Structures
1.
Amino acid sequence: MIRRFLTGIGVLGACAMLAAWAVAPAFAQARDSAEAKAARRVNPDWKAPRTAWGHPDLEGTWTTDDMRGVPTSRPAQFGTRMYLTDDEFAARAQQRERARDTQDRGAAGTFRNEEGTRDFGYTSMVIDPPDGRVPAQTAAARARPRDSSSFGVGPWEKVQDFSLYDRCITRGLVGSFGPAVYGNGARFIQTPDSVIITYEMIHDTRVIPLDNRPHVGKGLQLWMGDSRGRFEGDTLVVDTTNFTDRTTVGGAKHSAELHLTERFTRVDPDMIDYENTVNDPATFVRPWTMRMTITQQPDYEIYEYGCHEGNLAMRHALMAERAYEKAAAEAAAKGLPPPERVFERVNGPDRAR
């Protein structure tokens, strides 16, 4: 089909059209958006810095704080449009500025309600399928039990009733990069034969070999999967398999067959474009890709994330559950109905247990 197309319009015409397609997104982007001002967008000849051994340099502390204003799935009114118009972007910039007024702008490091410093004009993080929305889940995925969290209403019988996030175990590979209300940083370290990424929240660390070694055997499943990397030009491509079936992506608990392909491309001294393609036929009806631009922030520091040490949510929820059970037993001994539960008021008494 491509050969017939080229024959019809001529090679020179095809080259001109392909060149126009290559630069078309620049005209679709809001002029004042951070992505339009990236060094590679402004100057196509811009070269990413290199390490001493010649790999593209990704080292440093990066964060997804600037993505806080971008929805994961695209609102329907934008259709297949990937970027805001100038007017739409101006409205978002005003909204983000109001959000930044809620944080301590003089603070450095991890504080609640971090909002970043740049505004991006992306209509969604999901860029494929074309409608920018996470694809539908399969029937098998919809039937899987969902984890509760401490933001729910219980009831809480045991530690295992809480999510892996609540239990300070992991947020999963995709979830570990937020963007959440705090802790969206990651530290990248490089050696000639590996890339190491340490995520700020729950401090998961991935060691990604670059030496062409095969993946571990299929019988071994890991919270963050088993990653293998390679450089394609300026892009670090990471292939990850061997997941458990206990973490989530795109709002769904995925299967152990999940296969992720990540692409990290430095497009500016302070920006890396990050794309992640999710392929899990047991969970989603088609593969899909999300894109975030991770950035460096002035004076951003990553401190120790003492998750277990300050993790009182589960303890308090379980204590409250035991207190309710005691109160219910005392009421029953007196021939009285049990105390009202918040869970019943929210979900109805037939779902209280």
2.
Amino acid sequence: MKKLARFVLVTGIYCWLATLAVRPGSAQVSQPKTHAVVLIVSDGLRWQEIFTGADPSLLGEAGGSWSDANQLKKQFWRDDAAERRKALFPFLWGTIAKQGQIFGNQSKGSVAHVTNGLAFSYPGYNEMITGHPDPKIDRNDFGPNPNVSVFEWLNHMPEFHGKVAVYGTWNVFQNIFNEKRSGLVMQTGWDPPEKGKLTPRQELMNELYRTMTPLDNEDTYNAFLQVPLLEYIRTGQPRVLFVGYGETDNWLIPGRYDLVLESAHRFDHFVQQLWEQMQSMPEYRDQTTFILTTDHGRGSGLTQWKDHGVDEKGSENVWIAVMGPDTAARGERENIAPVTQAQIAASVAAALGKDYPHQVPAAAAPLPDVR
């Protein structure tokens, strides 16, 4: 009887959540062309590099550049800032900024910032996926997130259930998205990605996860995440996807600006791979919205660029880019009202025609004019 009662209770709660999520006249907005939405985060990637490319003051010894300085400059330095940023992020500036919109270039009157007052990872991820800061979340080892994310909220809807996934290099995403409660498809950290009967290629991938010496025990390499991620998109065909890449932050902490640039450049390539694979599939072609951002900013200057947090001025500043079939091609936004990290959650839902702030009043409104 206890098991039956528990089953009835859980079933009732699930049905109530699903009904609440899709209640007519409340959670629906205008029908979009978007069929799938992908939120992609490059941890700690500064707005300065996004909008002006490689920092000339950090290309030498001040940036811990152990690589060949001449080769580094040849690859990433251009006299013109627009050309410099395109050399570092060719897909972002050659495709996303042309076909979509990008916020956060403070030199052009566009500010994007966090509202959590802490400017480091867990508070930032919580803000972007729930739509509001939580002052209780004040450390990265906080534990399971008590807040329901927009991803979990969407997963309660029949049309998305089982098609909402989290792929991230950082194992703390298990807590940030509250894996046990949310039931989201999840691949994080150094957990071997392949399950069941494996192909030789999948066995090799798992072996690499088990035997590679980690740079960080919590965070796998971006390239290691990319392989199973592309496979999952092909086989699992998610409707809502979070992708978290960590290397841009990992190399900033030890002050390796040369490897920050390499990781940022490869991040751009990984985003291009995701876009091209999804555009090659009829399930996603011309029906997919990408939202790109970072969880926090960093300081500036010869030493402060390595640090972030409430005591490091500038860490509150981020950037946000959006591209999809419902987003007008307005390019680099200039001289507009500030936008916030908290607006990302509602933007994920709005891309799919759902009104998240209606059900979560604490959540910020979607980004302006992206639909």
3.
Amino acid sequence: MTISNAPALPDWATNMADLHVHAAPSLLPRHGDDRQTVAAEREAGFSTVVLKAHEGSTVERATCAGDGAYGGVVLNSAVGGANPDAVEIAARLGGRVVWMPTVSARTHKAGAASPELAVHRGFELRLVEVLDDAGALRPEWFDVLDAVARHDLLLCSGHLSAAETVVLFANARRRGVRRLLVNHPMMAFLGWNQASAAELRELGAYLELGILPDLLDPGRSCLDLTQAYPASLLAFGGDLGHARHDPPAVAVAPWLHALEARVGAARAAEIMTTQTRELLT
């Protein structure tokens, strides 16, 4: 649906990719269902859209949402946490993304009262542990990483802290995982820090630039990462879809202009198209 007086997209903003989109059905309020959400993303210039659901898998849903829609699985308690079978099934059905725990993550639960997690209030799942008491990756996750590597899927950090993500991604690389993405790294509850940034850069991990995190906390814009992290390791995941925040028709264009002001039109287009899409396919 086109909204009157919506800001114009930059001229280069076509055939873009979005790795992080929320839709109904969901236990949280959304702007629209899968088809409506993918259609709204298309109107905003996106030809590749990844549906994400904290409740579990979107792989089956994506197949019904139209061309260019992809799904994946979030390894919260609802699918059993460290469940390699969930990854295997998602991959064999065409899924391309595996997210580590979000609402089930220890870091999420510890930061649940923070303003940037207000969108999740009223929705809780059981804890899923990722690291042991010594700070090492728990052994049940090795089979998950092996399944991700076997199918060459994109592994996303979910709501793990920056420090947890370093441990996870280092293990993932050792087990052959090629595609790594840190979700909304600038959200305060995730504890972004320069030491973790340096280690993630060495691992070749991509950072997710998103719109909803910037709407929730403009003082910690992910656009600052364009000056602090290699631009060639940035990808886009808008994290839009929550009914209490702007839809794509309102939110996307101003954010794209802000991105262009930081990195220039050519690099902005590269981030929003080729760099992001190559993580997926």
4.
Amino acid sequence: MFTLTGGTIGGGKFESLVIAEAQAAIQKRKPLLKTYPLREGESDSFGAICGGEVTVFIEPQITGESLYLIGAGHCAHAIAKLAAECGLFVTVVDDRGDLLADLPPAVTGISEAAPADFVASRSWRNDEALVMVSRNHEIDCEALAAAVEQSEAGYVGMIGSRRKVLDVFDRLRKRGVSEEKLSRVYAPLGLDIGADSPAEIAVSCVAEILAVLRGRTAKHMQISSAAGKLS
């Protein structure tokens, strides 16, 4: 699992144990109250000899629908902004820190990991969307290669022309990726609204993500005149 930490609770073995417990609590989505003995002779002693004990309360931040964007270019910025305004928890992964600095305040930026490594390191949930919108198809291809192995993600999409998508799919097939796994990828991503600008692409993409995560059809809600009138 890819982890970002801040501050310290003493370092050493104790801190590493707490981090591991925190990671487990995030996955289980449950709080945890645990006491660690700081002395030898206890059944759950971890080698500390300073004496006493310490109790830690771990309360994971339970997020709702989330979007993870690989890439921080113009389209990614537009998608991140709209998705955050729609209430999604948004994270952008890119190695260009200057672009991450310009993200909206509600969006989290991560630059410490290669995109493919980030994708492979997480345990994905069915209320999370993962979208590849990086600056080149090589990055998207490697990230998608990791993503297709993560069957629990609720949505996996990749931006690009029909030519790019077919090229990336061919590369993954040669690596042994099955058609069943590729069939779960929304690529090119988005609903067909004739999107051209980054803002329009964002509307197309976010609408599709919300529909998929929520199990909706994304069909028109227009009422036919043949439906009759309210009495």
